[in-house]
Amino acid sequence: MSSTVFDLDAWSSIQLDRVELALKGWVSVTATATTVHRAPDDLVAAMRYAVLDGGKRLRPLLVLAAWEAVRHPLSGHFPQGEGGNDEAALRAACSVELIHAYSLVHDDLPCMDNDVLRRGKPTVHVKFGEARALLAGDALQALAFELLTPDEGMSVQQQAHLCRLLARAAGSAGMAGGQAIDLASVGVALNESQLRQMHRLKTGALLQASVLMGAACGTASSQALTALKSYGGAIGLAFQVVDDILDVTADSATLGKTPGKDADQGKPTYVSLLGLERANAYAQKLLEQALTALAQGDLPNPQALQGLAEMVVNRTS
Ligand code: IPE
Ligand code: IPE
Ligand code: MG
Ligand code: MG
Ligand code: MG
Fold first, then answer.
1. Is 142 domain-assigned?
2. Domain-embedded: residue 1
3. Which of 23, 56, 151, 242 has fewest C-beta within 10 Å?
4. In this structure, what CATH number is given to the domain that contains residue 161?
């Protein structure tokens, strides 16, 4: 094999270590304490339990891969810790993971999917009670935006742009809106376009935003941005199609969550609509769409995004 072949595992492992370390530092009592206020230890314990030591961290990887994709090779040597774009990308990566972790805490609550297992552990409300789980979710969401607005190292324009991308993807026209459609659709046979819309909002929006936020930490042409938007849309939808498939085909030990929930709870999914075989074929078609879009972006460094698209569709957990 040529030495120029991109090693996704090696790249991911470096990024995952950086993200884990950063999250550990930011989701802590000391990071958010002021001279006047200090967060209650038990609330921060629930937040840390929800965020640390678990999950695939796909969204942070997408942020960092998109940043890498738009970065010209010669500009790739920012010293760490100098507050340049590298720092912005790491903050953006962690902020999306915080929103995602909060969405999982709330998704698992008894008033939503009523799940007891997440990332191989009892869910946050099982461990800490419903009220604290609710508040941990709220606080994680707020912390995500705090991360995007540091005193130094990012221009106010960049901060505002990143906050807007994240807010839109998390809010009523994004994740929260999709979750509302999900709850309203129990026992309802959605048609393909309704199901696609639900999945694009509840899951796709945050994945697409991850890609766009990564690009916003660098400089991207309008051609690149168009390509990245299509890429993010396709893998965002593919991700939830595969989540629907794994709910039927994977076991609890592999998934780290309870399988078979969708059918039990009467949720419309790509498997209930198309059956397993066609749902799988659809995920592969979305992968092709994502890769085709990416190739049209004329990006300096698209390899990590290519690899992550394949991982999204061919994953087993
Ligand atoms: C699960 O997301 C929830 C969905 C949006 C389908 P992930 O499968 O990315 O969960 P973690 O982060 O790896 O636990
Ligand atoms: C969740 O979709 C999407 C979110 C916004 C959290 P699911 O309800 O299918 O996710 P899992 O299967 O519980 O992880
Ligand atoms: Mg759900
Ligand atoms: Mg769920
Ligand atoms: Mg699911």
1. yes
2. no
3. 151
4. 1.10.600.10
Of the pLDDT bands very low, low, confident and very high (cuts 50, 70, 90), residue 3 is low
Distance in angstroms (rounded) separating the CA atoms of residues 265 and 9:
36
pLDDT in tens, 284-296: 999 999 999 999 9
Atom nearest to 100 CA in ligand 2: 6
Measure 187 CA to ligand 5 centroid, in angstroms: 16
DSSP 79: P
Residue range of the domain that includes 236: 8-314
Indicate whether 180 belongs to any domain.
yes
- Residue 2: inside a domain: no
Question: In a mutational test of the pocket of ligand 2, which residue from 56, 195, 243, 257 has the highest number of ligand atoms less than 8 Å from its CB?
Answer: 243
Which tens digit of pLDDT belongs to each residue from 27-54?
Answer: 998 887 787 888 999 999 999 999 998 9
Average model confidence (pLDDT) across the chain: 94
* Strand runs labelled E in 85-243: 117-118, 121-122
Residues across the chain: 317
Which pLDDT does position 84 carry in this prediction?
A: 46
Question: Tokens standing for 74?
Answer: 């010669």
